[in-house]
Amino acid sequence: MRYQFWRDTITSAFAFSPAKQPVAVLLSSVLSSLRQQQHSNKPPLNKAWFLRIISAREKYSTNAPYPTLTSLEQYAENTYSTLLYLTLSAIPLHSLAADHIASHIGKAAGIAAVLRGVPLIAFPPPPNHHSNTSSLGGTLDTQRVQQGAVALPLDIMAESGLKEENVLRYGAEAPGLKDAVFKVATRASDHLITARQMVKNVQGGGDVGHAFEYEGEEGHDYHPSYGEEKYVAGEGTKDKSAQQREEVEKAFGVFMPAVSTELWLRRLEKVDFDIFAEELRRRDWRLPWKAWLAYRRRTF
Fold this sequence. Notes:
Layout: H1 2-14, H2 22-38, H3 47-59, H4 69-90, H5 96-116, H6 118-122, H7 140-143, H8 154-160, H9 164-170, H10 177-203, E1 230-233, E2 236-239, H11 240-251, H12 257-270, H13 287-297
Helix pairs in contact: 1-2, 1-3, 3-4, 4-5, 5-10, 5-12, 8-10, 10-12
């Protein structure tokens, strides 16, 4: 029922007759404001993207296993990447280069988030009634009282010889667990490396380097002359590389989740991919400084 509630909330907001609910009222107000700024009757944000996020969350709300690493990537695309697309649209910015970079960053962030949740989903914490409990609701010993599921792709678990029952029985000592975590974390890191190189390419006056796999899908339809060396943008013709640099500069704040994702993946590597390590559950005091530095230097 709660997922249908959010679908109805989104629908009412886009119809400019929001339900008496804070999120619906605020979203409807933002849509109205953006539409006035753009002087267009076309919805400034893509309703299908909101519904995509809800459907993806619903699909895995019961901690259903990801059949493959590719399906985990698709979940990250349908949630974290899609949130970035919506944020870019709200700037407003409709850019092939920015969307492409955001796709990779969202996939990295989504995969990392699933990894971070492995201990919590495997050993659900008791209700947190006291402020002095840990961020996951107590020590690992108390968490193991109630067992859940292992949120890792089944194909990676099979390749690594990892069995769910061993994780639930032995925790961090389960045979093959570190190998499985390493393989999944490597895919997240690969997406960050790709996004970082794409930003450098555009900043250096080049192209992003490869085609955007979602170009042409709903919400990712761009001007037909976008891929040419000179293309029509707004009232005139602009140089492609210059326009892409402007777009990436404008979008850079939206790319900041790459910073926190990179920091966490480095911490995971330092503990030798022990996903249950206590160090991974602590806040990283360096994040504000690293985020400020990344934004100032326009790199991550």
